[in-house]
Amino acid sequence: MSDEDVILDVEHVKKYFPVRRTFLQAVSRQSGGQVHAVDDVSFKVRKGEIFGLAGESGSGKTTFLRTALMLTAPTSGSIKFKGTEISRFNRRQMKKFRTRIQVIFQDPYESVNPRMTVFDIVSEGLYVNNLVKSREDAVQRVTKALSDVEISPPEEFIYRYPHELSGGQRQRVAIARALVLEPELILADEPVSMLDVSIRAEVINVLLSIREKKGISIIMVTHDLALSKDMVDELAIMYVGKLVETGPAVDVVSSPYHPYTHALTAAVPVPDPDAPKIRVLARGEIPTNISPPPGCRFHPRCPFAQEICKNEEPPLVEATPGRKVACHFWKEAHEAFSKGMDAPAGAEIAQ
Ligand code: SF4
Fold first, then answer.
1. pLDDT at position 345, please?
2. Is the pTM of this model over 0.85?
3. Closest-lying ligand 1 atom to the alpha carbon of residue 306
4. What spacing in Å lies between the alpha carbon of 327 and ligand 1's midpoint?
């Protein structure tokens, strides 16, 4: 694909939040520090692509989504939507941009108003943005959006209330609310994590089908690597505000280069009972973004860490064609993972 297909181009985006000073810091005129929520993140999302952003809670994924929507301005860096810098949009352009990029939230119970009918929920954006001329027009567009998310027959559901719907139907109504505005990019924040396993597949299929039929790009925030492997085209792994590995999702999940990615894949079910049982587990908790560890941020938890890791931050570089990793010892780590070899001293092995 050429650069003309790029919908969202993110370059060196940082988002820091100031920390409120304690009384002692205020008296001694010290700074309270900063939360490094997103730290020098770059990637591109192309037309019709599902781009995954994965990592533990606190890794900066959701803050990035808020920044991409300009709900909070980046501290520095550039975010271009179809080649235009979004921070330079005027009010009119920003209003239009907000219809081109839509969000699906994690919790279908919270993201729809229980006092509104399905019609009111889905048509609200049409009225707010003056995109319909009459009620008949709105009914027609809402009906079409409900059919697109496989709520059928739509006429039967259009005047129902959320409590009359199942969790899967409620999430599909939330998707229809995004779709009715004919977006080019959907930001999906853990779209199936609150749903029962039995109804996840139907929502996943709806997302795959709208990408297929309408060519809509999707950025999907998730901590579920098994889901990413099946659904996502390009996957980026985030750790304490930084990208540590990127590449085609199938390759990143089945053959990780970065020790952190490998730790995340420990939760992915392996159908082969004879597969190597090595599991390099991340030790301890994810560190705070207020004062991230120096050098490689993963070093206090990494079984492969050496002296250089404490002092030198590894850059995100192309390791093999199409794959990037930020690790001084990715080759050694990858070899250990792929061969199920003994891990180096300090590694924790799950048998
Ligand atoms: Fe581990 Fe060092 Fe690689 Fe960081 S740079 S992931 S600490 S081996």
1. 45
2. yes
3. 2
4. 5
